Amino acid sequence: MEQTSIWENIGHIYESAVFIYGTTLLITYALLAGLSSLAIRAYLRKNSFVQYENMLGSPLTPGVSVIAPAFNEGLSIISNVRSLLTLNYPRFEIVLINDGSTDNSLIQLIEQFEMVEVDYAYTVKIRCQKIRGVYKSTNPAYSRLLVIDKVNGKSKADATNAGINVATYDYFVCTDVDCILDKDTLLKLVKPVTEEPKKRIIAVGATLRTANSCDIDEGVVTRMRPPRQLLPRFQEMEYIRAFILGKMGWSFLNCVPNVSGGLGLFDKEVAVKAGGYDALSFGEDMELMTRMCRFAYDNKIDYAIRYIPETLCWTEVPATTKIFMRQRTRWSRGLAQLMYAHKDMLFNPRYGRMGLVIMPYNFFFELLAPLIEITGIIYYIIALCRGAINADYAVLLLAFVYTYSIMITTFSILWDQLAFRHYKSVKEVVLLCTTPFLEFILYHPMNVIFSIRGYYYFLTGKKHSWGNMQRQGFGNKTVTRKVAV
Amino acid sequence: MFKDFSSYLQENSFLGASAYYFLSLPLVIQIAFVFIFVALIATLTAYGSILMRRYRGYRRDQKLADILPRIDQLLTDHIILNDGLSQNIPVEEIELPLDEFRIPLFRTRENRQMLIDRIVNYKKSFTGSIGALLRQLYLELELDKVSAKKMKSAKWNRKVQGMIELTDMDMSISDVNILPLTNSKNRELRAEARNAYIKLSKNEPFKFFDVVTEPLLMWDQIELFKTITTTEEIAIPHFARWVTYSSNKSIVSFCLKLIVHYNQQDAAQAVIRLLDNKDHALRADAINCLGKLRCEEAEPRLISIYSNQPLNCQIEILKALGRIDTGENIQFLRREFLQSSDFDIRKNAAKSLIKIKSVPRSLIDELIETGTAENQLILKHCMNPLIKF
Q: Is B52 on the interface with A (CB under 8 A)?
């Protein structure tokens, strides 16, 4: 009898905790939806009269190094580099890092861009694997291109660090060589840096979208489409929600938790002093951002991270469950690693918003969310077996969560449509709008399971192996290559 | 739970039964009910808004596709291919067929705005007599009044829009109207007012340099630089005046860049005085300016202050010595290259040594032969014409 009452008490405490947790999460989402709307509207109003061409001929425009690591990208590397070279900006360099590719990437680059090895003096500010050679083109048309050939460091982080060591300018843009960038990417990423009156802008991010079903011509997205396949379409929906609603909302509060590894502009001095990318991290982009914020707080730098709602980068997302699983397992493992490494920042007022808002949010609503969901399901099953579930109420609460999640995702699609009217036809928008209905049943459970898998790997220290990422390629070539997924 | 609803229904109407039933539920379930209802309504509203947005966008695209070619046709026929222009008749004497433009199509606010936008757009592309004729058309159609009205709007974005239209069409705006806006709290309005003031002010286009209290942001500087350097018939002042007297650091920094752009050699003394400024970023800008002006008289001063400077200023001094290129400080550069422990100092010293024409080839050879592996690499790097930085 006494034992039963203990279990009941535990049950009550758990239910109350989950209730508070769920309510806080729902309120947070509602707040983010409101704040992102304000942030997007402010951005659009502020930028409606901007003449970016003023930057093009100006000697005052800050220089930017575009750092693009590549590993076995031989099938598409030439067209990707050509695409990067067409970026619309007056002062920039492309630092392409051949991260010990085992294919003919380097030979192709040397032949196509008339490159020769040069004696290049640089100082190693961040540790990385040995640079075997630096190449410059003898053709003035490719004078912006610098190719680094280095020993494979088994991570994008190591390759990017090598690029940062060699980069010339005070700001660097980090991207993947297979990402497609909008031609005005640099102009738009640099603008927030140049218009900030008091704070030091340490990073600027922009919206990423999936390239899977887009029409692409010569490295330029000529027509955006939501992916035809369901899994990539789920990811398109998720990207819209994360960037348009989440990051814009956080940006309004100057609480951006992360700048995506696919595209981000960074203050080189702060990035270097913070130690650069961590080659051992599975979520190197978020890890660097956290360390840069930490450095800023430790050194009393009044910093800001800005996000812009415009889509400036398209990337091919996993189209198969196997690849998707690897990617999400890696991400969640990275999150666990990050929270463990920076646990002292959690609720630490010394780290301001980072310690009191971003880290607690990441801890409770990113790291713990899958665990709470799993325990919730187990608790639910036990209660069901014990006949302690009121089926009507349970269905009602499920309907509540379901309708709420659809509403939030639909809002993010609405913000996107109101601001940018992406996609050519209504059919495509309708197709995307139907995707949230299945998310709850198909996509979300997958994410929970893969996250738990990531945490398990983190706890057991399982060695991460490089997976084969089968890409369709933007020229309809199927490319199989090893990437960190 | 739901079974009970029927019992309420037996005693009440449907609405009454629903109300009693709802009130009998636990609070959490009541909240859930409300939220489901709100979520459904909000989602449906969002769908409606998406469809509305798509439809409006579609209609606007259609409208643009219909009206723009007609505006283009009118402008081509009556402005670009104007008979008077081909006969070299002065622009002010050309009679424009205004009735062609005063058609019902342009009576709506939206369509009239399209016409304004198009005329402004054409004005940007055409200078000379075609540009002047476009301006005349804008005036004679009294579109300037439409733009001026926007400047009186309470909304900052309308004000900016009006200001941009007027400046692009080279219309004058009185100083009284625009000068207060150059110190507006709204950054966008402030920036645009400064641009407009420089472009349109008949008296002293740079007067706001004296009154500006807010810092000129990098973005403002980029925009102003473009306006100043591309506006025709603008009297370029001696920027040394603000370098000497302005207490606004951003104005001083911006003026240093303009001094370089206009190669105002007579500003050198004012810039040299800035070397005593406590702000090291401003000092670095001043050193950079002196180097780009190739100010030989500044060289001894730069050498004398070198050892007391922070790294960014030291690097600027090394760069300046290379630019000034008198050849009198070769030994100083050599010493810095050989003795400094800082990579950037050595690299910039080496760059300047390579740049200075009077440095004998034998010295470079000697440095390569006797230098450490890293110093050799730095020299080779600096000597390679393929590498810019």
A: no
